[in-house]
Amino acid sequence: MVFPQTRWTYIRQAGSDDSAAANAALSELCASYRDPVLTYVRIRLGADRDAEDIVQDFFARLIRGDLLARANPDRGTFRSFLLHAVSQFISDFRDHQNAAKRGGAHQRVSTETIDETPDRRSMTPEQEFERRWARTVLQRALDRLEAEYCSNGRQELFNVIKDQLDGTTARTGAAMASILGITEAAVRVAVHRMKQRLGQFIREEVAETVPHSVEVDDELTRLRQSL
Amino acid sequence: MAAEGKTTHLVDQLNQRALFDLAMSQNDAAPRRTFAIPNPDDLARRFPDLEILELVGSGGMGCVFKARQIRLDRYVALKILPKELARDELFSERFAREARAMAKLNHPNVIRIYDYGKAEDVCFLLTEFMDGMNLRELMDAGRLPPHEAIRIFEHVCAALDFAHREGVTHRDIKPENILFGKSGNVALADFGLARLAVDSGCEVSLTQTRQAMGTLNYMAPEQWENPKSADYRADIYSMGILLYELLTGRVPRGSFPPASALASIPVSVDEVIHRALQVDPEQRYSSAALMWKALASATASNSSCSSAPDHSGRAVPFGDQGTFTRFRTIGEQFAHNVAAPSASVGRGIMAKIFTAIHSKDAPYWQPVWISSAISSLIWMTMFFPWTTNISRRTGVDCWVLMSRTHVPVVVVAFLSMLIPILIASRSYLKRLRADGFSLLLSFASLFIILTAVNGYLIIGRDHVTGGFVTICDQPDSSFPMEPTAMTIVPYIAAIFIAIQTIELVAGLLVYLVGMFSDYQRQLSEERRRRWKSRWETLKKSLFGKEEIGDDEEAGE
Fold first, then answer.
1. Residue A24 CB coordination number (10 Å)
2. Within an 8 Å CB–CB cutoff, is residue B9 touching chain A?
3. Largest alpha-carbon pair distance within chain A?
4. A–B: how many Cβ contacts below 8 A?
5. Which of A3, B128, B167, B314 would give a disulfide with B112, using CB separation of 3.0 to 4.6 Å?
6. CB-CB: which of B18, B54, B141 is closest to A192?
7. Chain A partners of B7 at a C-beta cutoff of 8 Å?
8. Does residue A128 lie within any of the structural domains?
9. To probe the interface with A, which of B6, B9, B14 has the most A CB atoms within 10 Å?
10. A126 at interface of B, judged by CB pairs closer than 8 A
11. Interchain CB contact of A187 with B (< 8 Å)
């Protein structure tokens, strides 16, 4: 498994060429970030529409290449591209529907049905998209972290110290040490190593979606602000 | 999503901002994935003798896997170098040369190399595996107490000094390359790898090497300007940065506060760091050993820097180098503090016994004289490297210096030995025997010791600076001294100074005790009686007369 510098660059460079590898990479990337797109579509169109189908359609067209060619910005992250593409797709979809209805009224749907948290009602669909995106990045990194620990036979270690990852100490080092049967210093180092690995995975996840690896930090800052 | 479930919950349980902070804080660390990480299955195919266990680290200079060497049943570290390097034909050659040089570094504080080579399209190194963490992780886990930091630094200095003397430079000293074993032993890894990449001239590898150095915090200025011209003194610079970071927990950037302002260490340590961080390599310490010496003397009196005495008898950095003997283990302390002086005193006692037994036939002072003559010879040979060093430093011809230093010293030493011999041959001073003799010899030794230790010889109007103490304790980087000469001389000198000093004191004591003791009086009466009878016999045999004699009685 060899990763190119950033997958997003690779996909964009492949452009509209019918490169199977680029297509596969794109569909993989799209599948990873299906959650934020779905959330966004739900907010924009309302829960009564079949958002799942629309998203399915959107990704199908994206991977086929006609959206990529149309909405491909020269610069920018995969996130901004996807947001741009999906909003355009929704507009087109509406125009299409409206045209079908011959001037049928736009249907506005409140966001309450989507998100119950009151303080997020004021969020724009774009902000919500970013928030979900950030969460997806973290989730993917955590999945990879867990998978790695499991494959090394260190699942127990992962389970015991996983809630230490954000630095809030729920359990004391001594308690964890006694559970795992290792010294407290070893727990400290294990937590530190796991944190490092997670940070590395997060960076890698983000690196996949930016045009150049030097932009990872900008993107991280942006995502952090979205939370 | 399919993965909804406990992992989703984990994301929501954790503070997501903190996780992003975590990722952002890794900006300073080496950028990840600067090259392709090989697939473990792929590696298993290439290395059938190894059982690849896990990826333990990756950076610009490759990635490291923990592996088990199946036949020997031991853990090893498999380091895979970037593929770009393997494509370069010249690199392979250089890599082989460098690996052989690294393999020569057989030192407890240097990661050992087991094997190297090229497996299909990747270059690899098989090295000793350290089962602990690296210094970066240790420092990140919490600030080190100064004495612990200094202990680690000592080990790194020892490793580096050893490598430099073997002609190998490191060029990429940073906490990530300082590894710990489970028992707390320290070892320096990745000797020469950075240089290898720089020398290969391949742009990709150069970039990667620079990336591998993270924010380039540890690089000496000349490594920036002209990487190929940088020599081992670039390592000294990196050691300065490392020392600062070890003590304060942060890397010195721009105009940084003195380390003593941030940690409970003596101000004199600042001077050590300052000197290591000189822009001009000439101004830095000329060896890692000198830097350690300076640091050790700077921290010697400070309680927070000196750890509890180490009675473990563990291998000590400088201990097993043959030339560089430090008195650290109990055995060595014993040898230094007890055995050598006893040997000296023992020599005096043996001389006493010898003379007591053989006093009938042999001159009383002979054994002492012999032993002191041997000492003088050793002293003479020892002065030689010292003088050559001074001559190199001052530009004065070596033989001219010899005539100013050795010849007078030797003349004085011999005179001081000859005078008592001449005196003792006079019958009226017969009573000034071996003890007094020994005393005089010791005074001659003292002359040598004082001149050597004080750092100059007062010969005529010239003061030739550069005694052992001057050379060793106030190192001067402009001083072109060979590390070997420099390291061996002071320790041999220390031993001989100790022996000679003890001999002096012992001689004095034995003489004083003998002078005031009844035994001495009895012995001298007995000896006088014996000499008298022999003299009588001699007179009889020579002259056959009875009335001549007893003049030495009158002379007293």
1. 12
2. no
3. 73
4. 107
5. B128
6. B141
7. 139, 142-143, 146
8. yes
9. B14
10. no
11. no
Going by the DSSP 8-state scheme, the letter that residue B27 receives in this structure is T
Q: How many domains does chain A have?
A: 1
In-domain check, residue A149: yes
Tell me the shortest Cα–Cα distance from A178 to chain B, in angstroms.
19
Domain definitions of chain B by residue range: 40-321, 330-516
Question: Do residues B475 and B290 make contact, with C-beta atoms less than 8 angstroms apart?
Answer: yes
Show pLDDT as tens, one digit a residue, over chain B (556 residues). Answer: 344 444 456 777 777 788 887 777 776 544 444 456 677 777 888 888 888 887 777 665 678 888 888 888 888 988 888 776 676 676 777 777 778 878 888 888 888 888 888 877 788 888 888 877 788 878 877 777 888 888 889 899 999 988 888 878 887 888 888 888 777 788 888 876 666 655 544 434 444 444 444 446 777 777 777 766 777 888 898 899 999 988 888 888 777 888 888 888 888 888 889 888 888 888 888 888 889 988 888 887 665 555 433 333 333 333 233 222 333 333 333 333 443 344 444 445 545 544 554 444 434 444 455 555 555 555 544 444 455 555 555 555 545 555 555 555 556 556 655 555 555 455 434 444 545 555 555 565 555 555 554 444 433 334 444 444 444 433 443 333 333 334 444 555 566 666 666 666 666 666 666 566 665 566 677 778 888 888 888 888 777 655 554 444 444 3
The rounded distance, in Å, linking the Cα atoms of B59 and B79 is 11
C-alpha closest to that of B251 among B224, B218, B284, B209 = B218
Q: What residue has token string 């030689």? A: B384
Question: Are B125 and B116 spatial neighbours (Cβ–Cβ below 8 Å)?
Answer: yes
Interface of B with A in 18-57 (CB under 8 A): 18-27, 29, 31-33, 36-39, 54
Is B215 in the A-facing interface, judged by CB distances under 8 Å?
no
- Here the tokens at position B188 are 């320096």
Cα–Cα distance measured from residue A81 to residue A74, given in angstroms and rounded to the nearest whole number: 10
